[in-house]
Please model this.
Amino acid sequence: MGLLMKLFLLSVLVSFFTFAGANAIVGSVEKFEGDVKVKSVGSVKKSKVSSGLEVQEGDLITTAKEAFVLIKLIDGSSVVLDASSTIHFKSDNAIEQNDGKIYYKITSRDAKNALKIKTPFAIIGIKGTSFVVNATQNASVTLKEGLIGVTSIKEEFELYRKKVQEEFNNYVSDQQSEFEKYKNEQNKYAVAESTKEFDLEAGNRVSFSGQKVNEDAWSEEDDAEFERFEKFMSEMK
Model:
């Protein structure tokens, strides 16, 4: 085999492995504050992010205390990591969140391209909506708009759906004392439902304690939470 042919084949092989080793881009760092780091596939250490940094499949991004970062996905969706949070971009349709609090504003997607977020307590399926996932010790999901599906990683959930608010208010007004209201607090939930998966509708939140799940209505605290994240985003424009 001639020298030129050997050089040609070598260049083809180098190009092939370079292409094969490249990971797909899932988004970019729009803006950040504080100590934010990324660990890429094949890397043994984390490095500091920079504005405009391309986020690739396999990247693990973490924020330190008092830090946050806005990541713009390739479809126009936005993801904001709060302080002390971690996100792992498995692909453009699959994310793992094992710690912290993250705000997701996901653009409309068809069923084939629905985003799935895996957390320590459930798998969340999204087609297009905005919500906050809290993967700290007080695990919860709060949904502002749209509809999301929640699937158990382990056995069935023990799901306590909230009663219609009017029904609960009527119940509370009939009580004779604050003690009785406290004692019967559980009556604001319907009978427990055993289920492997369920849908969460807009204006509600669910909190997780093992396999026990409580559904509650949107609160003023939830309003403040979303306003804080959305303020981050507006200040970055």
